[in-house]
Amino acid sequence: MKLKSSTAWLLAIALGVGGGVALFEIRSTQQQVAQQQQSKLFSITEAEIQQITLKLGDRTVQLDRPEPFQPGKTVWQLRLNGEATEPASDGAVAFLTNLLATSQRDRTITQGRDRLKELGLDRPRAEITFRLKSGKQHQLAIGQAGFDDSFLYGLVDAPNPLPDQVSVSLIPKDFQVAAIDRPIAEWKRPPPPPSPSPSASPSPSGSAAPSPAASPTASPSASPSPSASPSASPSPAASPSPAASPSPTASPSPGALPSPATP
For labelling, which of 18, 86, 174, 186 has a CA lying 20 to 30 Å from the CA of 75? Predict the structure, then answer.
C-alpha cells in the first residue's frame, strides 16, 4: 500500500527529529564524561596506586602495597618516620586512596606566586606524593580552607619551580579528615580483639555448686567417742566416801560418860 505524500513527509520528519535527539543526547553524555574527567584531580583508579608518602610538617607517613598480594594478610604496610614497617589500617588507607582516585576539583583559579602564602600553599599543611604501578608519580599539596570553609586550596602536580602564575585547585574538604587531622596512631592496624580463653568458660570442675567435701557433714572423728564420755562424767570416787562421814567412834561411848560419884 502506498503512503500519501503528506504522511511520508511526516514520517521522515519524525525519524529525523528522533535521530537528532538521540545524537544530541549521545554528544551531551560524551561531553559530561569528558568534563568529569577534566575536573578529576587525577585520572587514575585505586588499583593503580602502589605507594603513598604523606608529609605532615616534620612527620612522614609512608604506605606501601606489597606485591604479590597474599590473601589473609594486610594489604598495606606502614612506615612512620622511616622506622620499621608494620601493618597499616586498611580503612584509613582506603579512605585516602578513594579520595585520590575519585575526587573532583570544584574549580581552578589562577594566583600569583607571591599570593600563595595567603592560601597556605607556600608551606603546605600536607603534601601527598603517590606512585602508580606504572612508575608514574603524582603530587598534591594542601593549603588552608577557603573563605566559606567548604573546600581546601590545593596544588595538583604543580611544576617545580613554580611559575609566576600558578593554577590553584579548590579540592574537597574530605582531604583534611583523611590526611591532615588524622592522628598518627590511626594509621596503624588495630590489634585483633582478645578471644575468650577456655578457662573462662564454666566447666563442671569449676562450677560454683558446693562439692560434697564442702557440705557441712560432721566427720566421725569430730563426734564424741564412747571412750571419752565415761571419763567426763563425775566418777563415784568424787562423791563423799563413808570414811569422810562422822564415824561411830566419834560419838560419846558409854565408857566416856561420867561415872557416878561415890559418897
Answer: 174
Residue 251 to residue 256: CA distance in whole angstroms: 10
Peptide bond into 68 cis (omega under 30): yes
C-alpha cell at 191: 590489634
Find all residues with CB under 8 Å of 62, minimum gap 6, and list them: 51, 52, 53, 54, 78, 79, 80, 82
How far apart (Å, rounded) are the C-alpha atoms in residues 56 and 63?
Answer: 14
Per-residue pLDDT of 177-225, as tens digits, reads: 999 999 999 999 988 888 777 665 555 554 444 444 444 444 444 444 4
* Residues 153 and 119 sit within 8 Å (Cβ to Cβ): yes
- Contact 170/176 with Cβ under 8 angstroms? no
Cross-sheet strand order for the sheet of 108-112: 86-87, 77-80, 59-64, 49-56, 126-132, 137-145, 151-156, 165-172, 108-112
Q: Taking the mean position of all CA atoms in its chain, how far away is CA 244?
A: 97
pLDDT tens digits, one per residue of 111-132: 999 999 999 999 999 999 999 9
Q: Which grid cell sits at 242? A: 563413808
Beta carbons of 59 and 183 less than 8 angstroms apart: no
